[in-house]
Amino acid sequence: MRSVGFALLAGWVLLAGLSAETPPAALERIAFGSCYKPEKKTEIWDAVKKFDPQLWIWLGDNFYNDFVEGKYIAFNNDPEAFAKGYEKLRRSDGMAALQKLFPDHVMATWDDHDFGKNDAGKEYARKEEAREAFVKFWGKPDRPDGVYNSKDWGPPGKCVRVILLDLRYNRDPLPEKGKFSQEGDMLGETQWTWLKGELSRPGADWVVIGSSVQFVAEKHPYERWANFPKAKARMLQLIADCGTKGVIFLSGDRHNGEISCQKGTVVGYPIYDITSSGLTEVSSIKEEVNPDRVGKLVNAQNFGELRLDWTGSDPRMTMEIHRANGAVAEKVSFPLSQLAPRKQ
């Protein structure tokens, strides 16, 4: 009886062990990109596969709804436009390259072109159709007021919280080029409330905020948080009020890549913003003023990487912008302790 009881107990322990959840692996490699025309061929996906990311982030303009047969149109009124766009994305080389990650290790938000219209915000007439098409393709999040979402990756002590914002569904109309919307908002109150909860929630070591447009850069006349200075100041104050450590921004949109760093803000530590754009699209702008830029402007097809080193007592992040052939164009590295809130 004793041997039978031991066997039964051993079997129960084995089954219990098999049924227990496997602890989440710490993220060491995150890759991201934006501004992708799925119908275009590029060698960039070979470089992405070689990097072998554990998580891929689509930062927006994941297809171009306002380009039909290679030509820009101001408003695409084709009732099947979004279905056609996502079908192109589904069949693309990019999705094939990320097949082993999809869907559980892929996150996405949108920007204006896959939202449906260049520079569009809450005034866009087809925004609800766009939201429904996004949810149908990506599977989540099914919110009534946009596609913002968040997920924690990794075990306690090695946790990365990825927060992807929606800068389209509730964004106020864009001011005239070169001007500012002093009272204009980017997120809408419901998203602000949600974001406060995500920044306040304990457990994250690094907090990666995906913003489809640039957060730090302020001198160029195109889309950026600086067009809505009250909203940008509110974001910085929210990070400070929540006491959130380790916040960095990822951005796209520009068809150029760069790493920017804003110092001397209310947050109390440097705010880094790594811009990766585009996967297929390249700007005709070869240079522009950005006093916050670290390194040089990358005027070429590119994708972004975050490498996280959890060894030692002070985890370290390395930001990299890679050209289509995989070569590192720009690189910045810093410890988590550099992004610690100022003590009150």
Summarize the structure in words.
The chain is α/β, with parallel strands linked by helices and 344 residues long. The chain has one domain: Alkaline phosphatase D (PhoD) (Purple Acid Phosphatase, chain A, domain 2, 4-Layer Sandwich). It contains 8 helices and 15 strands. The protein has helices spanning 2-19, 44-51, 81-90, 93-97, 112-115, 127-138, 189-200, 229-242; strands at 29-33, 55-58, 67-68, 71-72, 106-108, 149-153, 160-164, 206-210, 247-251, 257-262, 271-275, 293-298, 302-309, 316-323, 328-335. Strands 6-7-8-9-11-10-12 form a 7-stranded mixed β-sheet, with helices on one face. It has a 6-stranded mixed β-sheet with strand order 5-2-1-13-14-15, covered by helices on one side. Strands 3-4 form a two-stranded antiparallel ribbon. Strand 6 (149-153) and strand 7 form a beta hairpin. It starts with a helix and ends in a 9-residue tail after the last strand.
